[in-house]
Prior knowledge:
Structural class: alpha+beta
Strand content: 15-25%
Number of helices: 17
Amino acid sequence: xxxxxxxxxQILDRTDIVDVIGQFVKLKKTGRTYSGCCPFHQEKSPxxxxxxxxxxxxxxxxxxxxxxxxxxxDIGSRNFVEVMKDLSSQTGIELPxxxxxxxxxxxxxxxxxxxxxxxxxxxxxxxQQNNAPTENxxxxxxxxxxxxxxxxxxxQDFYGxxxxxxxxLPMAEVQQDGNLYDLLENIAQFYERQLPNSxxxxxxxxxxxxxxxxxxxxRLGYAPEDWQHLEKxxxxxxxGLKLLGLIRTSDSGRDFDLLRERVIFPIRDTKGRVVGFGxxxxxxxxxxxxxxxxxxxxxxxxxxxxxxxxGRKQKAQEWLMVEGYMDVIALQQYGIHGAVATLGTAxxxxxxxxxxxxxxxLTIAFDGDAAGQKAARRTLDIALPLxxxxxxxxxxxxxxxxxxxxxxxxxxxxxxxxxxxx
Length: 422
């Protein structure tokens, strides 16, 4: 059975290595790690360490190491597929039923249509005639005279060269498979390149206080207002665009782009791959204000957190859950790494478990309005069953009608840090 890498990643994201190993080894929490006696060799002093933030184990005695999958394979002398079947059952993530499922990341690219380039004809020049013929050149011209030459010239002038138009005709590209991850990366680059062409999009980010470095770091972009800009930019990838939900079809059968006249926030998975996009309308009268990519083979919004990849890359120690993309970006710009946001959905058990893998301490900093506080109370209800083994959940109550981004711009980062630490 071939198991796609993205399925393995999803299962590992839902698996806590401390819980897995804790079923076989008595672990003791020591600082940010857990330690115990190694199950793979005899020892009296614990040299076996488990790292929840890295989802990794290592024995300094026998050098055994790896992730949860490797541990279960070694401890039970089982093969990879057997372990994955067990973890699939525990996490609720289905494994592919056959090898055809591993091809779901692929799509058929349309062959490029050849462009006919008219052949360039050389200008005709008439040879200079000598109006004073001599006896010799009359003889020469008589000897070389071809009675059919005039007819050949007339025929070429009339019909032309029937193969001339094919001389510069490029061969049609062979149809080939596309990859959804590659297509998403190309789309992200396309949106990035459009940002300099939109003064309104640049002004939006400027008003939010973002620097050029921050814009580049988060790969922010712009989706043009053209209804079919993706179809024009990627004419060979229509099938892939539809699989990703970035192109929709109207009732009349006409295709149109999902994201138009919006600033774009690329969304990355834990591997740093672009898997979807969030789009914020530049005109506040347009509803909905935010649109996210729909779920696809690579994008599952209930299992993703915006900013998680970036926070892990920065080795964040403290983690905050906020509501919006701009909150995450503003906090990162001012040195608070570890801020994440859900993707237009309410926080759930999966989100919290993912964050508790990074740290035992988590802060909820939702908006100060009624909706934000209601979401905070709901998150508390979800989190209560998860608060064990030293886990802590803290709530940062923001002033009314403020989110972290607006509060930082009003109070400054130092005051925000002080309020956060209270």
